[in-house]
């Protein structure tokens, strides 16, 4: 069965142009539209029925693409998004890319095929050029895109972010001020803008204090619980040599905490700990960098609605990019263990 990508290739246009041609948008000129219809007929391509259903849902549908649906951070952001769009009768389609660039492309193609009226996305990577160009092509073609939490290279798209660098820097500085010199860092993927920002902040705080970063104490993970649990378990002998741990996100905090607990290493007693992101366990015990996730979601939705209502004119407007500050919540686990 022919797909929208087959028609686009045969007609020599983008999939976004094919989508707009079938939705009768005036932004596709008559010659291009006729060529698309001719190729579609040759390929026996028919728009899917759910395209019409999507167009009948009040103000339409928006797609929200997250890299890890199990991460409560994104669930909280989505709640903020829904608090805005639900009042406008806009439906939200939530998609999980699972930190996989290939899955992300398939999701974007599927959203395009149902004439989605806007996309809010936390990109898997800022290093995969095809995915970035695909998002930019949507934006240029009239499908507004708002980046959520993670940026793309060149910062050329609307987005809502948190101060990942500032939060990780202050957390690292706090550990250093508490007397720690051997600090382990649970690092997220450096292809993610938030992961890279936190890594750079960790390095910078050490440098600004005249301290050396011990490479053997940096654990490169993938923002996921299971991978982090396995990596910390494998390197538990090295972990026993440090006095503190900084984790780059809440899912990795969970994996790290489980590995520590199984090896009878007590946070706040045997080792200090700060999490970038409110931890899913150890509430009131583990210190963490907190971000206004609900407000971030609201801001994403408001920017998207403004862009959608502005239509093609919104392309001429200045990009709107909002960065939320962090709040360091200290519960005592940052202090130097007294019983070492």
Please summarize what this structure is.
The chain is an alpha/beta fold and 340 residues long. The protein is built from 13 helices and twelve strands.
Q: What's the CATH topology label of the largest domain?
A: Rossmann fold
The sequence of SSEs as H and E is HHHHEHEHEHEEHEHEHHEHEEHEE
**Alpha-carbon distance between the two ends:** 66 Å
Question: Which shape, going by the Cα principal axes?
Answer: elongated
CATH homologous superfamily heading of the largest domain: Response regulator
Q: Classify the helix fraction into a percent range.
A: 40-55%
CATH architecture of the largest domain: 3-Layer(aba) Sandwich
List how many beta strands DSSP finds.
12
What is the topology, as strand order, of the major beta sheet? Answer: 2-1-3-4-5-11
Q: Classify the oligomer.
A: single chain
Spans of at least 5 consecutive residues whose pLDDT stays below 50 are 49-59
Mean pLDDT, all residues:
87
Whole-number tally of structural domains? 3
Q: Compute the gyration radius: what is it? A: 23 Å
| Class by SSE composition | alpha/beta
Largest sheet: 6 strands, parallel
**CATH C-level class of the largest domain:** Alpha Beta
Beta-strand residue fraction? 15-25%
- Total helices: the number is 13
